[in-house]
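Budget justification note: compute hours in this period were largely spent on complex prediction jobs such as the one shown. Inputs:
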Amino acid sequence: MLGILKAMRTTLGHLPQRKITVQYPEQREQLPERSRGLFRVALDPASGEPRCRACTLCETNCPVQVIRVNYHSSYELPAVNEARIQRVRADSQPVPDLTQITPVIDHYRETGTGLMAVLQHTQEIYGYLPRLALQEIAVETGVSLSQLYGVASFYDQFRLSPVGRFVITVCHGTACHVAGAPLITEAFSDELDLEVGKTSKDRLFTLQTVSCVGACALAPVVRLGDDETHGRMSPDKARALVNDLRHRAEVDR
Amino acid sequence: MSATTDRAAAVSAALERALHPDGIIAHEGAREVRICAGTACHASGRPAVTAAFRDQLAEQGLTDTVRVVETGCHGFCEQGPIVVLQPQGLFYSRVRATDVAGIIAASIAADGVYEKRLYRDPTSGEPVPYERDIPFYAGQKRLVLHLNGKIDPYSIDDYLAQDGYTALATVLAENDPESVIDAITRSGLRGRGGAGFPAGKKWRFCRANPGDCKYVICNGDEGDPGAFMDRSVLEGNPHSVIEGMIIAAFAIGSGAAPVHGYVYVRAEYPFAVQRLEAALVQARERGLLGDDILGSGFDFDIRVNQGAGAFVCGESTALTASIEGQRGMPRGKHIRTVAHGLYGQPTNLNNVETYANVPWIVNNGVDAYTAMGTETSKGTKIFSLTGKLKNGGLVEVPMGATLREVIFDVGGGMLPGREFKAVQLGGPSGGCLPADLLDSPVDFESLLAAGSMMGSGGMVVVDDTTCMVDFAKFFLQFTQDESCGKCVPCRLGTKRMLETLVRITEGEGRPGDIDLLEELSEYIIDGSLCALGGSAPNPVLSTLQYFRHEYVAHVDDKCCPAGRCKALITYYIGGDCTGCGLCAKKCPTQAITGEKKQLHVIDESLCIKCDTCRQVCNFKAVKVWSGSERPEAAGEGRPQA
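Corresponding output:
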């Protein structure tokens, strides 16, 4: 009872006071000097000039496309930067054939299957979620790109960058852990020179872990792609598997 | 009165029409080769076995007399691929494609057994040819799983021929939703997803709450690592779940509001998704789903939504958020989902196993169901029994069976040479119970009182080679990773707990760490919005309760008694070494040196403790020591010059 009265006193005390709510974005607050989260161009303290050279890398890289670089520059872009930009653009994702997701979006419109299904089908088609495909989905469905990105980045299954030809998934469920899964992941990581979650430069291998495949009696379990499941693995067998896959890649070339 | 009997007659006529006898694949009493087509057996090589049977039976002209049937998960995953010959019930395990010729010759063309692939009793070594005699099966009470080795999940006619959908027909014929809710309430069916909330009560609330429409959702997001019960039910007998859902939908919606259904299955279960979708298509074709089910005037349809790899989406409000296409973050549960759930409408969310129990209860009666189980927990429970024991797999036992019965009688006990240390129940939300609690009965209240919980049914048995601190760290890694990030106590609290546990396992434990873990646990449990945070510290708390000495050893003595934590252990080769050189060959860092037939030595400075040498050694010569006392046999740790 006393607690309620105390709380009521606080509430009533604040009632006649000035409101601190700011109706953003119609009104904008002036933030302190060292606030974070404010996009602005830094000034070089020596010359007083902005450091920004309008290379537009920030615009290219922003996953939700909220940056627009408008500039009028009297500087020429140094050649080194030019090459770097080209390399970033080249390393980035190949242009996807967007006609492939038209049926997915149509299906979404007709049946209202839900956003997750759209993203899942898109990933089935391309192997990952290309940024251009996400932009297309945003335009076609009216869901904002930042919302799409929020959903795609929340769930483990969605990949925002391309995967390798061989996706090695090590199960890290309870039974597999007890049977030695971390050592197997280490063996893969060591043999492939790859961190968990990353794809090799030659786009041949991706190494990832998952929480449970559901084949616990065969622990430890390693899944290759979607179809091949290898049970009763060991660090030794892991290395042997990598060699086998490398051989397969050689043969197919 | 006559309207009711007319209706009953119409419904049963519709049900009879739904069955197409030529669609039946598995026949009772016929000569069949039943091959388990669950995920684990698939991974063990079942496709090759099936192909071999089909080809060779065709070659020998036996396809008319013997049929090949691929069934759902038999549960004995440890022994897969499993082949059972009917009608005798001859059980063959670990079958390879190369064994097929022998099996056909011995047991199909003739009346004998194929010795090589008979199941052998792990203690006596004696063969046990018939399925019904195998202790793994004899000790179970397969209610939900009883059709799991008998029917082809792709055939709705198999299910119909086994009295499938008769429960639905009964319910529709009676046309009294309240009496269905009443029956389920009296049966004492409690949610099998972990919380154990009385299902009948939930249905009653959902029916009573106002809304434009109602939703009936099946939670197939079995995220607990080590649990695969729901997978097996969905893969082996999807129709039982569908039937349960339709009955629930009728009880909740009929005469109140339109009802829609969803099944949320995790994406990591591709077979379950495929079979469920195929089952839904078939059910619609036969008038068992969709508009005017079995001519009763009741409409209901089910959609399948796949998860995308988030454990937190098993929580009811996160699940509904996920179906709505948002980030799966839970919300406050002061307004329950039965009042305001998916799209703001009253929603009934139950686990796969809960729905699968419903047809059995309707068909066999409430009294038969209450006859099984304990005072508070009725019926049976499916457990996925895994870990360091002989017979791992899926077991269904009546509530009230003791842990000892489940692990040692059904599960066959520990692996040879290993000692029981603890059993972990309830996944990342549950706790470990030590050997002196083995006689605890398996039911909701007893397990909670012991410091663990029933959870969804994951039961992992660990032995003396498992470090309990590392085990707790594993669960915390999982919950930290899966935390949605909304609540500060969960997001940061689990991170700090994990950091502390990592320090402890890496030999950097500080005095006061254990108290810190306990203090953090309290805050995390109090301050979290959902049960993920609310139960994340449970593995740590239960291991602290029963295995505190291990934590103390790690922190104070920098010793890992189980010999697991890498930073605290050293590998060495003991006296049993025959000098075969296998370990040296396999060692990835060439840390082992030695002459042929001489004792080999591990160079500790090169050893990365990958455990390869210990696993490949045929003489058990590679050992591990931990702590401050270096054993004599461990030598100097450097190769002889």
